[in-house]
Structure prediction request, 224 residues.
Amino acid sequence: GAVVSQHPSWVICKSGTSVKIECRSLDFQATTMFWYRQFPKQSLMLMATSNEGSKATYEQGVEKDKFLINHASLTLSTLTVTSAHPEDSSFYICSAPRDGQTEAFFGQGTRLTVV
Amino acid sequence: QKEVEQDPGPLSVPEGAIVSLNCTYSNSAFQYFMWYRQYSRKGPELLMYTYSSGNKEDGRFTAQVDKSSKYISLFIRDSQPSDSATYLCASGLAGKSTFGDGTTLTVKP
Prediction:
């Protein structure tokens, strides 16, 4: 199946610093990518839709200035958590559907711990 | 009300049992229905995908969708310890999926 690669798989950062997470579609083009957050024992919550060449669309309650999304190419979207705080500690997962298709493929996730 | 509601579990069954996992959805615009398997600390893995009412079979897995009742099911036959994971149902449009909360399944040898 299609491969979506997410990097890093885990990161620990100090409170107040910024962290960038990359999501790459390795063998297909993805005009759209999705960013989710998952807290322990909870489901995936959609944070934002990343659109290649245009601004991301954020879900209600997600701070766009805190979670910066850039989708500069058809195979790469990045999520930057700015001025991270301990409450931002979570599992962040990206997904990408092949263009023209609906089923999405997920990255392996990034576990962010802010200390 | 959540758009996708999933039977919470957890579920524990002996090896070889038939497992039934269930979800309902409320948005009649949803066109696509998926089941994902998620192991601890990993991203979800797509198991089954369908866009119509009826059954879809893949090996030991059968996905069932009833659009009239907005009901989604996943059946696992001859369950194995390696099937132990959290299973997430999802419905949506154009790749944008709404997930259920997941059901954690444990298959005991």
Q: What stands out?
A: The two ends of chain B are 37 Å apart (CA to CA). Chain B has no helices and eleven strands.
